[in-house]
Design a protein that fits this description.
12 helices, Alpha-Beta Plaits, alpha/beta, 21% strand, Rossmann fold, eight-stranded mixed beta sheet
Length: 303
Amino acid sequence: MRIPDRFRERYCSLVDDEEAFLSCLGELLPKSFRVNTIKSSADEVMRRFEGYGMGLKRVPWYGDAFICDNPEAGFSLEHFTGAIYIQELVSMLPPLLVREELGKSRFVLDGCAAPGSKSTQIAAMMGNKGTLIANDVSYSRIRALKFNLEKAGVLNTVITNRDLNAFQNLKFETILLDAPCSSEGTIRKNYDVFDAWSEGGIRQFSNVQKQLILKAFDMLMPEGTLVYSTCTFAPEENEEVLQHLIDNRPEARLEKASFDGLRTSETVGSWNGTEFSGEIRNAARIWPHHNDTGGFFLAKVRK
């Protein structure tokens, strides 16, 4: 795998260990999955996988998540019946950040939902009750979203196919905005990311994200919670987007994003001559070499 020189220049100055960061990008991700608590339990899945002779390692920061030593986990009966969901570890973080809120919320929006990884997780955390709107702008991806929701036994979800910016003026207690991004953090499972990578593309995504985060925030009920997340390293798509929210919605308050047992890193304080608000330090970066995961960024915003 050849890493573009400009990519190295952009990010090696931001990490604590340049060699470990670049080396990790060339390694495959461990096989991980989440137990779908609508259909099973962690203890039951552990018992069944032990019977298959597949070793599981429980993730310390999420009791329903496991790393499997056998890549055949995706061919197990549990996967085909929806008792588990094959999912990258950092992809599980946004719902986990608002797990307490989801347990109480009756009206929730997953703004960019397809293919359904987080929607199925949200529904389980809601106890399959209340109403979850799973929206995605891409009609071609709605099919996968529908399939995964049905497979997981989700009953509380309505699928919509809308541009979030043109969404109805509804109000939600909890909103997840896992925004479309340059996907740099997924390089360990898809090296083709580098084929389309460019700083121009990053700026285009940033412009879209800034519109989406304002729209999502405006749809929150008073004291509602918004999780903004991306799977990219780019400050333009992360800290700069949060700064745009703070500048245009002064009532937005960032709460601490942290997880017991998971190493997170400080956000970027400035980029390309722009100083970011100190409040943005409450957001979290996840670098791949710190937890043997993909790269990720997430923030918890209260209205």
